[in-house]
Write a structure and sequence with these properties.
With 993 residues, the protein is an alpha/beta fold. Helices cover 43% and strands 10% of the residues. The strands form 4 sheets. The protein has a 14-stranded mixed beta sheet with strand order 6-7-5-4-9-8-17-16-15-10-14-13-11-12. A 3-stranded antiparallel beta sheet has the order 2-1-3. The protein has a 3-stranded mixed beta sheet with strand order 19-18-22. Helix 14 crosses helix 22 (702-714) and helix 30 runs antiparallel to helix 31 (951-965). The chain starts with 34 loop residues before the first helix and ends with a helix.
C-alpha cells in the first residue's frame, strides 16, 4: 500500500464512535524544539567528535605506535617494567576502550536512524553504550527522526537491554511527556474533555465488532528519513494523535507476522499489523475480510485478527475461559465466585464472615460503640497493635528515665469518645486475619522466588468466607501450591485451611499497598493502590471523602502486611502523623507534592534501571535489596486545579511500576488522567461503575479519627515527660481493715480466695472473665468481654447467660450490693471488695514511693518488702493454651516486669543506704526471677556485689552475664560498668570463651 502524502483533517469524524476498549484518557501535550535542544545537540556533537576523532588523534600524535615493532624475545619477560612499557600498556587499553565506544556509537546511530527495533548490544559495553545512546539521542533530537526517537529518551536510565514490559507506563513514554512548553490550560482541558467524551461513547457502544467490520492498518516502510509512528497513524485515521494509546492498547503484546510483539508505543516495525478503533477512517485502512489486498496480506491479517479482543470475547461467550484484565482502564474488580467444595471449614450453625467474627455477633444494636470501627477488622487490628507498641515504648522510655522510682507506671485511662473508640478497636479487631493475610502473601512470594518467578501484578485481594482471592492484572500461569486457580486465569485462590499451614517467613512483603475499601456480598475488598496504572479518583461530599481518606491513611500506616512504606498526605491529615511518624509524611499543598514526587519519580526510575528490574515487583523477590522498593502512596484529598491535575496525570503515568500510588479527591467524577474513578455517597456506598464495584465503604469519620489520634497522643513517650505521675487506676486499703471479700492471685499461678470453684465446663470461662475485669478496674464493655472470651463470635444470649452466672458466682456484699455492677456507661465494673494481688502490689509500691513511705524510711522499707513477697512469677503463669488471647492487646505483660524491677531497685537502694549489700543482692535476685531481662537490675546487682568487697564473687557474676549474653555480647552500658568495677573482666571472659 502506498503512503498518502496528505493527512486527514484533524476534525472529529461524524457518527457515534465505537471502540474495543473503555479507556480513560491520559493528558498528553505536543513537543516543540527549544533553544536548549540545539545547545544539547551541539554539545553532544562536540563530545562525540572529541571521543571518536579526538582521542585516536591525540594518541597517535603524543604516543604513537604502542605495540612492539618486532616479536619480543623471552628475555623481555625478565626485564624491569619501565615508564615506556607502562605508558604503552596504558595506551593499548585506551585504544581498546575507544574502539568499544566507537562501536557503540555506530550501533546507536544505526538504530536511531533506521527507527526499527532496539539497538544491538555491544558485549561488555554497558556504561559506554549508555553514554553513546545519550549523546546520539541528544544529537538526533533536533533532527527529522526526533518524533520516533524521543519516546526512548525517557527510558535511558532504565535498562540497557530495554527490558521494560508492555505496561501502561510504556504507553505513556511519548513526546507529550517530554514537553517543556506548557499549552494553555483552558485549551488542554477542552481537548481532554473532548477525548473523555469520546471514550465514554466507546464504553457505551461496546467493542469494535459492534461498530462494523474490524479495521486494520499495516505499518509502512520509511520514506527517506521519515518513519511511521503510532502518533501519526492516530492523527491521520482518528483525527487526534493523542489517541495513539488506544491503538497501542489494542495491539499490545500480540504476535506480529514476524513473530515479535508490540511492547512499547515508540517501537513499531514496517510490516506490522495494527488493529484500529472502530471509528478509524482513511483509504490506507483494510477491513477484514478485504478482497483488494494480496492473499498473503489477507492471511496475515486473518491470523492477527484471531488474537484480538473480539476473538477472545467470542471464545469466552462459548465457554472458553476467563477475562484477563490487561490494563487498569479496562479491568473490572470482580467479586470472586464462592468455592465449590462446599466446605468452608465452619459449621453451618456458626457462620462466620471474613473477619472471623460470627455473623450474628451481638446483632441488633451497637451498645454505643462506633460502628465504623466495629466493621473494619483490619483497620482496628492495625490501630490496636500500633497503640500497644506505642504504650510499651512509653513504658520502657519511662523506666529508663526514672529517677528515684517516681514516674508514670500507668498509661492514662481514656474517657468519653476515646474510651468508646478503644472498646470498638478491641471488639472489631481481627489480628488473626491480619496474620493469615500477611503469612499467605509472604508465603506466595517465597514460593515464587523458589521457582525463579516474579510476582504477578495484583489489582485487588478479596477475603470471602475465610478464603483469600488475588485478582491479577493478567494471567500469570499456574500459581505455586497450595494456591490454586480461581474462577478464571486472573484469580489465584488460597483456602483458609491451606493458609493456616503457613508459618512466618523472612520474605519481603510483596503487596504492601493493599488497603481495605469495604465489603460487597459478604466479601471484603483490599485494593492495591500501588498497582493502579495511573490515578484513582474519589468524588463525593467533602466530609464523606475525608472519612475514606482517613480510613485509608490509618490502615496503611498501621497494617500488619507491610514492611516499610511512605504515606504522603497532601493538604490534610497533619493530625494523623502520631499514628506512625515513620510512615506518615504530611505536605501542605500540591506545590510541595510536585517538588518531592518529581524528584522521587526520577530517582526510582534510575534505581530500577540500574538494578535491571522492570518494576518494584521484581525487586521484591530473590536476593535483591527489597527494602529499596518500598511503596510511596500519595493521598491528595482536595480537588487539584486544572493545571495541577495535568501535572499529576503526567507524574502518575509511570507510577505503577515504580511502586507509587495516587488517590486523589475530586468534587466531580471527571478528573483528567484518572485511571479508576470512584464515588462515595452520603449513605456510605463506595461506587465504581466501570470497575463493577458497589461496596459498603470502610470509613473513619472525623469524630472517631480525633478519638483515635487522642489515644496515640496520650501514649506518646515524648509527651510531657515532666508532667504529673499517673496513679494506679485502683488503690486498695492495705491496712488490716481493708481485707477484701474476694482475693484473686494473678501474679504467678491463678488462685481465688473467698469463692467456691464453679462446677462444670464453664469454670474456665468464669475465671477468664473475672481476670479480665480485675485487670480493667475502670470497667469493661459487654461487647469487649464477649469478643475477648469468644474471638470467633458468639450470640447475645450466650454472652448474657455467662454474665448472669458470673454475677451469681461473685455474689453480693454485706450491704446487699452486687459485686459485679453496671455503671452509667453500660460497662461492667467490680466492687471494691473484689481485689487482686496486682492491685495490692501497685498500691504498696505507690504508698512506698509517693504516699506514707515517701517521708518515712521505715515505712518505705516495710512496704517494699511486703510488695516483693507478693511476686510469685509471671502474670497468670499457668494459663491454658488457647485461652487469654486478649492479653496480646494488653500492656500488663510489659507493666508487671517493670513494676517488679522498680520494687527491687527501690528496696536495693533502701538497703545499700545502710551498707546492707547482702540484703540488696537478695532483693535484686527476687526481682530478677520475674524480670530477668531488665538491664537495670543487673547493673544494680553488679554494684551491690562490688560493695561486698569480694572480687571473686564479682568475677563470677561477670562471667555469668557474659554467658547469658550469648553471641549478641553484652550491652555497651553493661560493658562500661564492668570496665569501671572490674577492669580485668575481659581476661576472664576470653579464658571462659
Amino acid at each position: 500500500m502506498a503512503r498518502r502524502s496528505t493527512s486527514s483533517s484533524t476534525g472529529r469524524p461524524t457518527g457515534t464512535p465505537s471502540g474495543p476498549r473503555n479507556r480513560t484518557p491520559q493528558p498528553v501535550r505536543m513537543r516543540r524544539r527549544t533553544a536548549g535542544d540545539f545547545v544539547k545537540a551541539f554539545l553532544a556533537l562536540l563530545a562525540l567528535l572529541v571521543l571518536v576523532v579526538g582521542v585516536p588523534g591525540a594518541l597517535a600524535v603524543t604516543v604513537g605506535w604502542p605495540l612492539p615493532h618486532s616479536a619480543p624475545k623471552t628475555e623481555w619477560l625478565s626485564e624491569p617494567i619501565g615508564v615506556d612499557v607502562f605508558l604503552n600498556t596504558l595506551t593499548v587499553i585506551v585504544w581498546l576502550a575507544w574502539a568499544q565506544f566507537t562501536a557503540c556509537v555506530l550501533v546507536e546511530v544505526k538504530a536511531a536512524v533506521s527507527g526499527v527495533g532496539l539497538p544491538g548490544r555491544v558485549p561488555g559495553a554497558g556504561p559506554s553504550q549508555l553514554l553513546a545512546r545519550q549523546l546520539v539521542a541528544a544529537l538526533l533530537l533536533v533532527g527529522a527522526t526526533a518524533a520516533s526517537l524521543t519516546p526512548g529518551l525517557s527510558q535511558l536510565g532504565h535498562s540497557m537491554e530495554g527490558n521494560q514490559k508492555g505496561t501502561v507506563a510504556a504507553a505513556q513514554a511519548t513526546p507529550g511527556l517530554l514537553a517543556q512548553q506548557q499549552e494553555q490550560a483552558k485549551s488542554t482541558a477542552a481537548a481532554l474533555a473532548e477525548q473523555a467524551g469520546h471514550v465514554a461513547a466507546q464504553a457505551e457502544h461496546g467493542s469494535t465488532a459492534a461498530h462494523g467490520a474490524t479495521k486494520y492498518y499495516r505499518i509502512q516502510p520509511p520514506e527517506g528519513r521519515h518513519h511511521d509512528s503510532l502518533w501519526e497513524i492516530a492523527q491521520r485515521h482518528l483525527g487526534d494523535g493523542r489517541r495513539y494509546k488506544e491503538i497501542y492498547e489494542l495491539n499490545k503484546d500480540r504476535v506480529q507476522p514476524d513473530g515479535s510483539r508490540l511492547s512499547e508505543a515508540s517501537l513499531i516495525r514496517p510490516g506490522w499489523i495494527m488493529e484500529m478503533p472502530g471509528d478509524a477512517h482513511g483509504g490506507e485502512l483494510v477491513e477484514n475480510p478485504d478482497a483488494h489486498v494480496s492473499p498473503e496480506v489477507r492471511q496475515q491479517i486473518g491470523d492477527y485478527a484471531s488474537t484480538g479482543d473480539h476473538a477472545q470475547q467470542q471464545h469466552r461467550e462459548q465457554g472458553g475461559g476467563g477475562h484477563a484484565a490487561e490494563d487498569g482502564a479496562t479491568a473490572r474488580i470482580t467479586v470472586p465466585s464462592p468455592r465449590q467444595t462446599g466446605d468452608t471449614g465452619t459449621p453451618a450453625a456458626h457462620t462466620q464472615d471474613d473477619s472471623g467474627h460470627d455473623s450474628g455477633h451481638d446483632s441488633g444494636h451497637a451498645f454505643g460503640l462506633p460502628e465504623a470501627l466495629l466493621g473494619a477488622p483490619f483497620l482496628a487490628a492495625g490501630l490496636l497493635a500500633a497503640l500497644g507498641r506505642r504504650r510499651r515504648q512509653a513504658l520502657w522510655q519511662s523506666a529508663l528515665g526514672a529517677v528515684g522510682g517516681r514516674r508514670g507506671m500507668e498509661p492514662p485511662t481514656p474517657h468519653g469518645d476515646a474510651q468508646d473508640v478503644q472498646d470498638a478497636l478491641l471488639v472489631g479487631a481481627d489480628p488473626e486475619g491480619v496474620r493469615q493475610l500477611d503469612r499467605s502473601l509472604r508465603g506466595l512470594a517465597a514460593a515464587l522466588t523458589a521457582e525463579s518467578r516474579s510476582l504477578p501484578v495484583v489489582y485487588a485481594a478479596w477475603l470471602s468466607h475465610g478464603d483469600l482471592h488475588l485478582q491479577l492484572a493478567q494471567p500469570a500461569g499456574k500459581p505455586p501450591a497450595p494456591w490454586q486457580l480461581g474462577q478464571d486465569q486472573t484469580f489465584w485462590t488460597l483456602s483458609r485451611a491451606d493458609a493456616d499451614r503457613y508459618e512466618d517467613t523472612d520474605t519481603a512483603a510483596p503487596y504492601p499497598g493493599l488497603v481495605s475499601l469495604g465489603t460487597m456480598d459478604d466479601s471484603r475488598l483490599l485494593l492495591n493502590l500501588e498497582a493502579v496504572p495511573g490515578i484513582v479518583s474519589l468524588s463525593g461530599r467533602e466530609a464523606d471523602r475525608a472519612a475514606v481518606f482517613s480510613s485509608v491513611a490509618a490502615e496503611l500506616a498501621t497494617n500488619g502486611w507491610s514492611d516499610r512504606m511512605t504515606i504522603t498526605l497532601v493538604g490534610f491529615g497533619a493530625d494523623l502523623t502520631p499514628l506512625a511518624p515513620n510512615r506518615l509524611r504530611h505536605l501542605d499543598d500540591a506545590d510541595a507534592l510536585f517538588e518531592v514526587m518529581e524528584a522521587e519519580t526520577r530517582q526510582r526510575r534510575g534505581a530500577l534501571g540500574a538494578a535491571g528490574h522492570d518494576s518494584v515487583l521484581t525487586g521484591r523477590t530473590g536476593p535483591a535489596q527489597h527494602t529499596r522498593w518500598a511503596p510511596n502512596l500519595v493521598l491528595l484529598a482536595a480537588q487539584p486545579s486544572a493545571e495541577d491535575a495535568l501535572r499529576l496525570a503526567e507524574l502518575a503515568a509511570d507510577a505503577a511500576r515504580l511502586g507509587i500510588g495516587y488517590l486523589v479527591g475530586t468534587e466531580s467524577a471527571d478528573l483528567p488522567g484518572a485511571a479508576w474513578a470512584m464515588e462515595i455517597t452520603p449513605d456510605g456506598k463506595l461506587l465504581a461503575p466501570l470497575l463493577g464495584l458497589e461496596l459498603e465503604a470502610q470509613l473513619l469519620p472525623a469524630v472517631q479519627q480525633r478519638a483515635v489520634v487522642e489515644l496515640f497522643v496520650e501514649a506518646d513517650p515524648e509527651r510531657d515527660p515532666d508532667g504529673p505521675t499517673n496513679a494506679p487506676p485502683f488503690l486498695v486499703d492495705i491496712s488490716e481493715q481493708g481485707r477484701p471479700a474476694v482475693y484473686a492471685r494473678l501474679v504467678g499461678p491463678y488462685e481465688i480466695i473467698g469463692l467456691d470453684t464453679p462446677d462444670g465446663d464453664r469454670s474456665a470461662l468464669l475465671h477468664e472473665a473475672l481476670a479480665l475485669l480485675l485487670l480493667h478496674r475502670e470497667g469493661v464493655h459487654p461487647r469487649v468481654l464477649s469478643s475477648a472470651l469468644w474471638p470467633r463470635g458468639v450470640t447475645e444470649d450466650v454472652r448474657d447467660a455467662l454474665l448472669e452466672r458470673l454475677r451469681a458466682w461473685l455474689g453480693t456484699d454485706p450491704d446487699g450490693g452486687p459485686r459485679l455492677r453496671t455503671d452509667a456507661t453500660g460497662r461492667l465494673v467490680l466492687a471494691k471488695s473484689v481485689v487482686s494481688d496486682l492491685d495490692v502490689l501497685r498500691s504498696l509500691y505507690y504508698e512506698a514511693t509517693q504516699g506514707k513511705g515517701a517521708d518515712s524510711r521505715a515505712v518505705r522499707g516495710r512496704l517494699l518488702t511486703d510488695a516483693l513477697v507478693l511476686v510469685r512469677g509471671p502474670l497468670l503463669a499457668d494459663r491454658a493454651d488457647g485461652r487469654y488471647r486478649w492479653l496480646t492487646h494488653e500492656i500488663v505483660d510489659a507493666q508487671l516486669p517493670l513494676l517488679v524491677a522498680d520494687i527491687g531497685l527501690a528496696l536495693s537502694a533502701f538497703h545499700l543506704e545502710k551498707d546492707r549489700a547482702e540484703k540488696a543482692i537478695e532483693a535484686l535476685g527476687a526481682a530478677l526471677r520475674t524480670a530477668p531481662d531488665d538491664e537495670r537490675l543487673w547493673h544494680e546487682l553488679l554494684r551491690a556485689t562490688h560493695a561486698t568487697g569480694d572480687p571473686d564473687r564479682l568475677r563470677a557474676l561477670a562471667a555469668d552475664l557474659v554467658s547469658r549474653s550469648g553471641a549478641r555480647g553484652l550491652p555497651p552500658r553493661t560493658e562500661a560498668l564492668l570496665d569501671e568495677l572490674l577492669p580485668t573482666w575481659r581476661e576472664g571472659a576470653e579464658a571462659a570463651g
